[in-house]
Design a protein that fits this description.
The complex is a heterodimer of chains A (59) and B (400). Chain A has 59 residues and is an alpha+beta fold. Chain A has one domain (2-57): Alpha-Beta Plaits. Chain A has helices at residues 15-19, 44-48, and strands at residues 2-5, 25-28, 31-34, 54-57. In chain A, a hairpin with a 2-residue loop joins strand 2 (25-28) and strand 3. Chain A is globular. Chain A starts with a strand and ends with a strand. Chain B is an alpha/beta fold and 400 residues long. Chain B folds into three domains: 2-73 and 97-172 and 270-346, 3-Layer(bba) Sandwich (FAD/NAD(P)-binding domain); 176-266, D-Amino Acid Oxidase, Chain A, domain 2 (2-Layer Sandwich); 350-399, no CATH class. Chain B is built from eleven helices and 18 strands. In chain B, strands 1, 2, 8, 9, 10, 11, 17 and 18 form an eight-stranded mixed beta sheet that branches. The longest helix of chain B is centred in the C-terminal third of the chain and has 29 residues, at 322-350. Chain B is globular, with a radius of gyration of 22 Å. The chains are: A alpha+beta (59), B alpha/beta (400). Chain A binds chain B through residues 11-15, 17-23, 26-27, 44, 47-52, and chain B through 46, 48, 159-163, 166, 172-174, 176, 179, 181-183, 230-231, 237-240, 260-264.
């Protein structure tokens, strides 16, 4: 799985990076980027995102 | 800007928020050569903060805060229960501030520089230099130039998402249980009950596990924000909760949005181990935040000073290993952690309350009780008051 970022909604707060249990997310400039090989599909980032900017999708 | 940065320092501080600048200033004052790297182009931006700070916390800095850091002086708080009943907290003999974080953070960074540290904005740490399981410095992009900078100690003051602590193997992700999801608008042209009071609105329908805040930054300007526990099961985001609250308040809804902020707010989960070989963490990176109100500036500053004392000792002894830095963990827990752990217990109590129970509590609690609770004091008294209140209601029902 990987994390799809809605850049129109993302504030770039990096909260998802803080929450990610698998260290799959990293801030890449203003928005997060997901390393799909690390993502464990736990949904923590999706549940956390204050702006509703994240969704999981098949790579 | 390579000429400004040396290849080696005693201390490299990653992040120039209050935690990083306080640590750097205290290190530089102890004659440790100190470099601060901050990834933002402009220190203090973007803010991830409601900007409230008590006067006592400013006193812990031991510095005269310049007036441009203060957006609004505050003399009290109004806490609203879910049914709208208000509890007034009048600050006795001490004031509070709503800051202009952009000015405050730049001022603190400047104070670190004045003490002898070198501070560099737009300087992002990419990875840690490690040798035999010990952190030996950082690889960073310093305003466009790649650099390897060695140091005896690297301080992780790089916020909730701390790359340094992850790279050093000191932590994985923060738990959803101990992290609130925050969203905020800085708004202009709004109406407020009292622009010298911070206003807090509680209720599970308003903000599950958290609250909505209105922190005035002037007569008609305020940070209007929300923090919620992300484990609620409504499928709604912090932004959606905040938008709904604003929609229900004509005096807020009529305003404009002049800035949008978001962020993760640590509300507990204090770490036993914040130190490793050649590395330690301060501030949001290691959850040094009051779990009731979510304020972290005061805790960061205190921890930063403590970190500098321990680093100075460790460098002096020539032992910056985890064992050499362990005194930081021990002293932080003794001086701050035990107290904050009690505040976390209060937070755990409050998050179990229904809206009806919160309404009941608003009938029995005074402003002073609420102030005590935010310091982790008086939970037993609150429970006693509540039981008496419910008993009186029961007696009235049975005899009425």
């Amino acid at each position: 799985m990987t994390v799809k970022v809605d850049e129109g909604k993302c504030i770039g707060c990096a909260g998802c990076v803080a929450i990610c249990l698998a260290a799959a997310l990293r801030l890449d400039g203003a928005t997060p980027a997901c390393d799909a090989s690390k993502c464990i599909n736990c949904q923590s980032c999706v549940r956390f995102c204050p702006a509703g900017a994240l969704a999981l999708e098949e790579k | 800007m390579r000429s400004m940065v040396k290849p080696e320092y005693d201390v490299v501080v990653v992040g120039s928020g209050p935690a990083g600048s306080a640590t750097a200033k205290a290190c530089a004052e102890r004659n440790l050569s100190t470099l601060v790297l901050d990834r933002s182009r402009e220190i203090g931006t973007p803010k991830r903060c409601g900007e409230g700070l008590s006067q006592n916390s400013v006193k812990t800095l031991g510095l005269e805060m310049p007036s441009n850091c203060i957006a609004q002086e505050i003399d009290g708080a109004i806490v609203y229960a879910p049914n709208g009943k208000r509890i007034d907290i009048q600050f006795e003999g001490t004031k509070g501030y709503v800051l202009e974080r952009k000015a405050f953070d730049k001022w603190l960074a400047g104070e670190a520089a004045r003490a002898g540290a070198t501070v560099m904005a737009k300087s992002e740490v990419r990875s840690l230099l490690t040798e035999a399981g010990a952190v030996k410095g950082v690889r960073a992009n310093v305003i466009g130039d790649e650099a390897e900078i060695r140091s005896k100690v690297v301080v992780a003051a790089d916020g909730v998402e701390s790359l340094v602590l992850r790279e050093a193997g000191l932590k994985s992700g923060k738990s959803l249980q101990c992290t609130d999801s925050g969203f905020q608008y800085e708004m202009a042209g709004i109406g407020m009950d009292d622009s010298r009071k911070i206003m807090l609105y509680f209720g599970n329908r308003i903000a599950p596990r958290g609250y909505v805040w209105v922190f005035p930054k002037g007569k008609d300007v305020a940070n209007v924000g929300i923090g919620i526990g992300p484990l609620h099961n409504t499928g709604r985001t912090a932004k959606q909760y905040l938008d709904e609250w604003i929609a229900s308040r004509p005096e807020i809804r009529k305003g404009s949005v002049i800035e949008v902020n978001a962020g993760a707010i640590p509300v507990g989960g204090f770490m036993e181990t914040m130190t490793g070989n050649g590395v330690l963490g301060v501030g949001d990176a290691v959850n040094q935040v009051n779990p009731i109100h979510g304020g972290g500036i005061a805790e960061s500053i205190k921890a930063g000073r403590l970190a500098a004392e321990v680093i100075k000792d460790a460098v002096g002894r020539g032992d910056v290993s985890a064992a050499g830095l362990r005194a930081y963990d021990e002293r932080w827990w003794e001086e701050h952690g035990q107290r904050l752990k009690k505040v976390e217990k209060v937070r755990e109590f409050f998050e179990k309350l229904s809206d009806d129970e919160m309404d009941d509590l608003a009938d029995v609690l005074s402003g002073q009780d609420l102030t005590d609770l935010s310091h982790g004091i008086g939970l037993a008294k609150v429970m006693e008051l509540y039981v008496k209140f419910k008993a009186r209601g029961l007696v009235r029902k049975l005899t009425g």
